[in-house]
Design goal:
CATH architecture of the largest domain: Alpha-Beta Complex
Structural class: alpha/beta
Helix content: 25-40%
CATH superfamily of the largest domain: Medium-chain alcohol dehydrogenases, catalytic domain
Distance between the termini: 19 Å
Strand content: 25-35%
Function: Catalyzes the NAD(P)(+)-dependent oxidation of D-glucose to D-gluconate via gluconolactone. Can utilize both NAD(+) and NADP(+) as electron acceptor. Is involved in the degradation of glucose through a modified Entner-Doudoroff pathway.
CATH topology of the largest domain: Quinone Oxidoreductase, Chain A, domain 1
Number of domains: 2
Largest sheet: 7 strands, mixed
Cofactor: Zn(2+)
CATH class of the largest domain: Alpha Beta
Number of helices: 11
Binding site for substrate: 40, 113, 149, 153, 302
Shape: globular
Number of strands: 19
Domain Glucose dehydrogenase C-terminal: 142-353
Bound molecules: NADPH dihydro-nicotinamide-adenine-dinucleotide phosphate
Catalytic activity: D-glucose + NAD(+) = D-glucono-1,5-lactone + NADH + H(+); D-glucose + NADP(+) = D-glucono-1,5-lactone + NADPH + H(+)
Length: 356
């Protein structure tokens, strides 16, 4: 079958003919429809993040997928059912995090991540999985169901943010998303759905207009903040103090500047994954600010099946125009190099194996 892989020592994706996967007992065979590409895939291809499956000289890429059950293989799923696979699997034997359905909270070493670290991903014509790691989705998700995975990451961050403010009456109104990449824009769209309590939203970037991401921000109802004019630690003065800040730039200074952007009693979620970078911060002032203003700051990675379920509902509430503006290109596996090209006119690219 066709698979998009990165070979050991290479730093670009290639199409390879690999053996068809055979489902073990209790596993399902899936036919891939579409696989989205995100910043993590770029990092995996560059060799900055993740790692090859043990003993293999290539890794099949991709962790944002939507697929069809091709062979239910005696499991409770039905052939033809549409599913979204989760990303983490136990490293070897199962462990308490997986048994509690909280693989997202497993520490490093207790999990592999399909398409990222230690396991093959979903960017191939077929893949296999245990049904416990498959989230059924309605047929209407064939085209954009691959977005359930990234949206679920933000559902987790929202859940943790609200939990961190659950000991008192928190009535948030303002939210700032740092980053106008795919994760930032998806999160802004989530904050703009009807069930969201936020009345005013902002999204930070560093692009000149006209720019497709700025268009999406404004069409969603958010205010575009240009970090070249307004640094994150000046946002509270220039706009307003934020009840919630969601960081999706991977720009390490933003982690600390978030404390200044927050309103008293506010909460900041850090999602970006930066490289090492040494710089000076006034740690005493930030520590004092967190304590005396009851602010909270936390990191969040990955998501669990409950958050995938929440993501399904949330995606269903997105306006139709958003998908057309957000998914800028769809590529055949044969043209995968194009899917990994970046540019100011590219927001989200997708590799399509089978028509939705
Ligand atoms: P991208 O790299 O595509 O997006 C980052 C965006 O932030 C870009 O649009 C970039 O602007 C903008 N940006 C970076 N620095 C600044 C700055 N100083 N001022 C203003 N804007 C800035 O990544 P994704 O959207 O895919 O993901 C965001 C981050 O989240 C990444 O670090 C990724 O690794 C991480 N991630 C974390 C997950 C988790 O579970 N924790 C899940 C998925 C991703 P420009 O394009 O103009 O350079």
């Amino acid at each position: 079958m066709k698979a998009v892989v990165v070979e050991r020592g290479a730093s670009r994706p290639t199409l390879l003919d690999v053996p068809d996967p055979e489902p073990d007992a209790g596993e399902v065979l899936l036919r891939t429809l579409r696989v989205g590409i995100d910043g993590t895939d770029h990092e995996v291809v560059r060799g900055n993040h993740g790692g090859y499956p043990p003993g293999d000289d290539y890794q099949i890429l991709g962790h944002e997928a939507v697929a069809v059950v091709e062979d239910a293989n005696g499991t409770d799923l039905d052939a033809g059912q549409l599913v979204v696979p989760t990303v983490r699997r136990p490293a070897g034997e199962s462990n308490r995090y997986f048994e509690r359905s909280e693989p997202d909270m497993a520490p490093d070493g207790q999990y592999v991540e399909r398409g990222i670290v230690g396991a093959h991903g979903y960017m191939s014509e077929f893949f296999t999985s245990h049904p416990d790691f498959l989230v059924p989705v309605p047929d209407s998700f064939a085209e954009h169901g691959f977005l359930v995975e990234p949206v679920s990451n933000s559902e987790k961050a929202f859940e943790h943010a609200f939990a961190a403010r659950s000991a008192f009456e928190w009535d948030p109104e303002s939210a700032l998303v740092l980053g106008n990449g795919p994760l930032g824009l998806l999160t802004l769209a989530m904050l703009e759905t009807e069930s969201s309590p936020f009345e005013r939203t902002y999204c930070l970037g560093r692009r000149d207009r006209p720019d497709p991401t700025v268009d999406v921000i404004e069409r969603l109802g958010g205010t575009y903040v240009d970090s070249r004019e307004t640094a994150v630690d000046s946002v509270a003065d220039a706009y307003e103090p934020m009840d919630f800040v969601y960081e999706a730039t991977g720009y390490a200074k933003h982690a600390f500047e978030t404390v200044d952007a927050l309103a008293p009693n506010g909460v900041g979620a850090l999602l970006g994954i930066p490289n090492d970078w040494e710089f000076e911060v006034d740690g005493g002032r930030l520590h004092r600010e967190l304590v005396l203003e009851n602010k909270a700051l936390f990191g969040s990675v990955n998501s669990n099946a409950r958050q995938y379920e929440a993501a399904k509902d949330r995606l269903g509430a997105f306006p139709d125009w958003f998908f057309d503006a957000f998914v800028t290109d769809v590529y055949a596996p044969e043209n995968v190099e194009g899917a990994f090209e970046t540019g100011d006119d590219v927001i989200k690219t997708v590799v399509e194996f089978d028509a939705p």
